[in-house]
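Hey, I'm writing a tutorial for new members on how sequence and structure tokens pair up, and I'd like a real worked example in the thread rather than a made-up one. If someone can provide the structure for the chain below, I'll link this post from the tutorial.
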Amino acid sequence: MNAEAPELARTQALILAGGQGERLYPLTVSRAKPAVSFGGMFRIIDFTLSNCLHSGLGRVSLVTQYRHEELHRYIREGWSELWSNSEQPHRSPLTLLPPTSGKRYRGTADAVFQNSEILESDDTEFVLILSGDHIYHMDYRNLLRQHVETKADLTIATVEHPTDDASHFGVVVVDEKFAVTGFEEKPANPRPLPFKPSMSLVNMGVYVFKKDVLLPSLRRFCETGCGFDFGHNIIPSLIPSGRTYAYDFRDEARDCPRYWRDIGTLDGYYAASMDLVKVDAPFDPYANDISPAEPTRHPTLNRRPEKTLSQGLQNHCDVSRSVLSPCVHLGRGVKVTDSVLMPGVRIGDGAQLRRTIVEEGVHIPAGCQVGCDLD
């Protein structure tokens, strides 16, 4: 694989997985956002780790902070062996980087700055910055290849999104050759693509930097206290150089944007979950080897969702358009519609749930109705 993509051996990847996830509260009360259950048998972090594994990346570190203990345990029990056993002779063990000496990361760029020793101590040329809380499949080799071919200082992975709904994201402004000419963080009036006025390019939170460009930029802002964020500080400062490009995350065969979801809010989490149960689902994580082999997807669980669903049907339950996780128990006569039941949930006899997210280990009493009457 190195012969096909020699840039892999020259790349250090850092996954930013320390977010508190306040907008995903209360699912993040007791765990970091990347450790939240998704799709029945996964944790959110699985998708980024799977992308790294299947892209052939050899040096990957997770930068963690908020309630990192459970996330670390999951990585050690669910990913370390799989990562080490992968057929990649150049692959190093996954590195976990919690904050040291009681320090707190003040932003995304500061999280990298406080761990810059890992970048300075090796011979890599490129730094791949990834978010640990997004749902998508990407082969990072294509992104790295474009970065090398364009001789960019910074390449920003982007995906097309309707302009009318792009104000929730960072919007990347480009010319016809996808050179970046501007960047706006959650603008009130997003700039559309010059050749597609109904669509904008939104920032996926995936960046490739030349290391010798990134490190001075981090020192310029974080060391001096002038700024601590990629979107607000680092990226805008590099655009005037003319060496920043956008990578269009696109399905060329179907001529459409590839699937990518930021599930940082409850509404976003629910919408992405419902995408999984559509008849013509736009994203199917179950058809790919996303996460570690059972039973370590969830360290304490050992059953697939479909077994639990069969158990529910035996109890004369009515379950439709819903995500059921392992170790969910459905009582007799339960009705579940358009809902997400996380691992270990117990639903009492005759209960009814509609458009509901049920947190791990929660017990819904018999006869209870949730989401059925908005009043």
